[in-house]
Amino acid sequence: MSRRPFHRIGEAERRQDLIRATLECISESGLKGATVRQVAARAGVTPGLIRHYFSSKEQMLQDAYREVMTGMTTAVVVAADAQQQTARARLHDFIVANLTPPVADPAKLSLWAAFISHVRVDPTFAEIHRESYLAFRSALEELVGDVLVEVGQAADKRRCQELAIAINGVIDGLWLEGTLVGDLFSETPLPGIAIRSVEALLGGIALYETPPSS
After folding, report:
1. Is 40 in contact with 46 (CB distance < 8 Å)?
2. CATH homologous superfamily, domain 62-201
């Protein structure tokens, strides 16, 4: 395990560096292996400094999980937020971003698998998971609503919510398959399968990578 050289940085940056070191340790050794001592060695600091930023190992792990979930949601929302795009193009890019690196990555799967067992037994982890899921679904509901309005269809809250739940199910399933056995889909890329599946859920509305020519 490599040790990072110590250098003076700000409080926020130091905390972020410790969270990154925690995630690296979890990816290599699982939750039990990510001890305060290991994380300190990875970050190039003393265990005492870690205790300055985190009240316990559990808090350190909770913040690391929040970082993983928030980071994945932010990455796909940013990908769908380009200027001068149609609503269909934004939804298209959102779906593709979920199924391509850096979101669709074996390292992300390893972290997700390490954390997910805690969600069922730890109320704080469960709340972090719930918050991240609702934030992701809310972003997806907004994108779906914009698409429906763009094509002149009703975009009531219940319809948008049901479509967002269904689309999220498609994304989750393909993300899991792609990160587990991605080599099996070299001839049939998963983003294309996802786009066609979502178009079917939307009743045949075509999603465009770029605005269609007039």
Report:
1. yes
2. Tetracycline Repressor, domain 2 (1.10.357.10)
The dihedral sign for the CA sequence 80, 83, 86, 87: positive
pLDDT, one tens digit per residue, over 162-202 is 999 999 999 999 999 999 998 888 878 999 999 999 999 99
CA–CA separation, 156 and 135 (whole Å): 19
Closest CA to 142 of 93, 91, 99: 91
Residue-wise pLDDT tens digits, 82-124: 666 899 999 999 999 999 998 999 888 889 999 998 898 999 9
Cα separation, 150 vs 77, in Å, equals 19
Q: How far apart are CA 182 and CA 148, in angstroms?
A: 32
70 half-sphere exposure, CB direction, 13 A CA radius: 10
Assign domain 1-54 to a CATH class: mainly alpha
Q: Are 25 and 33 in contact (CB under 8 A)?
A: yes
Q: Give the length of the chain.
A: 214
Task: In whole angstroms, give the CA distance from residue 132 to residue 50.
Answer: 25
